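Lab notebook, bench 4. Still working through the backlog of constructs that have no structural model yet. Next entry is a single chain of 411 residues. Request: give me the structure tokens for it.
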Amino acid sequence: MEQKKRIFGKYWISVGNYDWGCSVDKAVLTLEEPVKGINPARLNVIERKMVTDESTPAFDTYEKNVNRTVVDAYPCDQNGERCEGESSYLAVELYAGPKEGSPLVCTTKYQIFIWSDPYELLFDYDGEYMLSIDPVYTKKITAADMFEKKSYTTDQGITYDYAAYSPEQKTDLLFVWLHGLGEGKMDGSDVYLPLLGRKGCTMAGKAFQETIGGAHILVPQCPTYWMDADGKRSNFAEGAIQADGTSYYTDSLDQFIDWYAKKVGAGKIVLAGCSNGGYMTLMLCINHPEKYRAAVPICESVPDAKISDESIKRLTQVPLYFVYSKDDPIVVPKLHAIPTIERLKKAGCRDLHVSVTDHVVDTSGKYKDKDGNPYQYMGHLSWIYYDNNETDDGTGLAAWNWIAEKIKDNE
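Model written out:
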């Protein structure tokens, strides 16, 4: 029996940004000798990573091997671009889905996502030769790489790591995104996770930038979580945050945003955030309503019972576009957005818009459940509609387009 030729190599991975967050959707193999290509149907790829056992109080993790779906495999250049003929580089495209390919793991009782360690891909080819690929990837390219990673320390001594993007065109608009609980800072995370934890890279994309007329993007990463009352996580108990309607970070974050706006020459500021970030969005608007041209709180988590009448009055000064899904099991709308919106209406809020859905479902047509129906996400993920500019306030006005209107107002 003729022995198969063994070809040694290494690989790097590409992390794409999707509605549900991120998935490894491509690996580029660097081989010690050229190949003409391989049959994708005969290539098996196993993903070795950490996964979370949500049945345990501390969200324990364990290592697991998962079969990945190979979409295509072809000779390429060193950047992963398809080429003809033989090549020492081989691109392997992998299916990415809501439950397939995430390189992140949710760990600890604080429910923060970190990069899985280990995260490895194992390649097995049942063809004319054998692949012997080092399982440890050499580099990681992500959809967020166009953002700069930096940090800033406020007068209060609080250091914020942050991701930032500025378009080529001149603009005096600063758009600030405030992340949810899962993207806070922790060993094993980084400042790209507030982008990759949702479809956050759209903020630097052509569609978003053209719709709102160009904007600097600032994405701060909270040292703990925005709903933290004392900066020590003391109000996190039994898997939930006991919010009191304040945040330890309000003043320092306000100073940070002012500093960054001055740094990039932005005279207009728009806020948006989801869940914990929606909480912080309202905190900033309550404390300094005069500073913000518009704000988009998405599945915001400020208990209405903790918002005073005076705070409601201050919020009426800010143009607001709320987004939520009726079936949100994490931030129950009946205790948060719904009563707050009603109070804002009664208080005379003149620029108030609400996009509400029954559920959060895939609208791309790419992802379906076992019965062939559109894939349904957990109701908390209402930011998916925002990220795709598919929100609707009942008049057909989507949040991105509304932001564009607010930027033009009173210029």
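Notes after review: The first strand starts at residue 5 and ends at 18. The chain has a mean pLDDT of 95. Flag for follow-up if needed.
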